[in-house]
Design a protein that fits this description.
Largest sheet: 2 strands, antiparallel
Shape: elongated
Number of helices: 20
Structural class: mainly alpha
Oligomer: single chain
Mean pLDDT: 94
Number of domains: 3
Strand order of the largest sheet: 1-2
């Protein structure tokens, strides 16, 4: 017998997972699994079918009287108690039907067979609905739950940590680099403030997306609904059911809800991830320069051959997973709003990867948060770079020269500093020889690269205080 045979499904473990989200990193994305797994999709389908069924009973149809409170409680209990065992039962039915939404309908009929007033009206389960009526609404519920319970709590933790660092490091001067060259100093706190401010807006954009849904039949016109009950205002009823589920009603669709809101959400998450890629790369660089050290844990190994190394692995993992997430998120946002004519099924398999795209985002945010928590500032290294960059004072000196009308200030400073090693002594000698009012001359002479940080500290503290 071959020793390389594949394990049976019953023997599969996290070591056999094709995706690291279900293998190596499975515990880190557990919060998403409740919402974006196939079982989560089934639960939301059941929720939609039950809401539609109960709503129909209240519509005043001659064939379907309002359900009793006990019947409603029993139906809602199917939603509240839905778990892996119930998902397995639906999956077993699907092996016969080869249709996942029809399997949910049959499961509901079986589960309510002993509830007489429901059993009499079981054909009102999925009444006048196309599968997409159930699916698009279920997907909206899945994303709403994932956003509320998994994405936003973790992203806000990242933001809080950035704001803490903004406050703690507001006064710590740091040499800037533009185009990789030394530039006007800033503070570490102000640099964290820049990212925190961007992240605040990004979080607001994610939260502002109104997830939409439709329940209007095969091509969006309530054709079957009106054929059965032409006197009912089906658009009003459909809106009521959708909004009762906490979603925004879309009145104009083909068979599918066009997924524009999903695309907006995925784009907003991708933009957030891009901000955090920027942060991860910068911190990686600051660690390599020695601006930050990293807290270590006993027993951890940074390199198999170089025992001194403490690699910035959390920021590297964050950057890698943010890139994977964005590749998937952008495919989702590009593809999902497109459907041939009134319906094709290219969106169906793509939608099953929402959890993968958002899972890599969550994994990256978790890595980034752990990395931020390990950072230890190395002030001496920061001071060392500032002390070796007196050329950055060419900017304030020539600006004061301009104020007082001294000739060719830019050109004089260019001649003094460009491509040359500028020392504290040479810079101060230049300032001392300028024909400036004494107060301005003394102010410039007292200035150092570490003190030339403008409003950086004030801006940082203001953002941190307003959290």
């Amino acid at each position: 017998m071959s020793t390389n045979s594949s394990p049976t499904s019953a023997a599969l473990s996290t070591l056999d997972a094709l995706s690291p989200l279900d293998g190596r990193y499975a515990p880190k994305v557990d919060a998403l699994r409740t919402h974006l797994s196939e079982a989560g999709l089934m639960r939301c389908r059941v929720q939609v079918e039950v809401a539609w069924f109960i709503g129909l009973s209240d519509l005043g149809l001659p064939e379907f009287a309002p359900l009793s409170s006990s019947a409603r409680e029993a139906l809602n209990a199917l939603v509240a108690g839905f778990g892996s065992a119930q998902a397995a039962e639906i999956k077993a039915i699907e092996r016969t039907t080869n249709h996942d939404v029809k399997a949910v309908e049959y499961w509901l009929k079986a589960q309510t067979a002993d509830i007489a007033e429901v059993h009499r009206h079981t054909e009102f389960f999925h009444f006048a609905c196309t599968s997409e009526d159930i699916n698009n609404t279920a997907h909206g519920l899945m994303l709403a739950g994932a956003r509320r319970e998994a994405l936003m709590p973790l992203l806000r933790r990242v933001l809080r940590r950035l704001l803490d660092l903004t406050d703690e490091l507001a006064d710590q001067p740091m040499l800037s680099r533009t185009h990789g060259q030394t530039a006007s100093p800033t503070t570490l706190g102000k640099e964290f403030a820049n990212v925190a401010h961007r992240l605040q807006k990004a979080i607001a954009a994610i939260e502002a997306v109104q997830l939409t849904a439709k329940m209007n039949g095969a091509v969006g016109n309530y054709n079957a609904h009106l054929a059965a009950y032409p006197e009912v205002d089906w658009e009003v009823f459909s809106r009521k059911v959708v909004e009762s589920l906490g979603l925004t009603f879309n009145p104009y669709t083909i068979q599918i809800e066009p997924h524009d809101a999903m695309a907006e959400l995925f784009d907003a998450v991708a933009r957030t991830n891009t901000i955090l890629i920027d942060l991860s790369r910068d911190i990686w660089g600051y660690i390599s320069w020695g601006y930050f050290k990293q807290k270590t844990k006993a027993g951890e190994i940074g390199s198999s051959t170089m025992p001194h190394k403490v690699n910035p692995i959390d920021f590297e993992n964050a950057e890698g997973n943010l890139g994977i997430a964005n590749a998937l998120l952008r495919h989702l946002s590009d593809k999902l709003p497109i459907s041939r004519f009134q319906r094709d099924l290219t969106d169906s398999t793509v939608l099953r990867n929402m959890g993968v795209a958002l899972g890599h985002s969550v994994l990256a945010w978790d890595s980034l948060l752990r990395g931020l928590d390990k950072l230890l500032v190395h002030p001496q290294r920061l001071d060392e770079d500032l002390d070796n960059a007196w050329e950055v004072l060419a900017e304030p000196v020539q600006t004061v020269m301009r104020r007082h009308g001294l000739p060719n200030p830019y050109e004089q400073l260019k001649e003094l500093t460009r491509g040359k090693a500028i020392t504290e002594e040479s810079m101060r000698a230049f300032i001392a020889g300028l024909n400036l009012p004494e107060a301005d001359r003394q102010r410039l002479l007292a200035m150092t690269p570490a003190s030339y940080t403008g409003l950086a500290a004030e801006l940082a503290r203001r953002l941190a205080a307003g959290r």
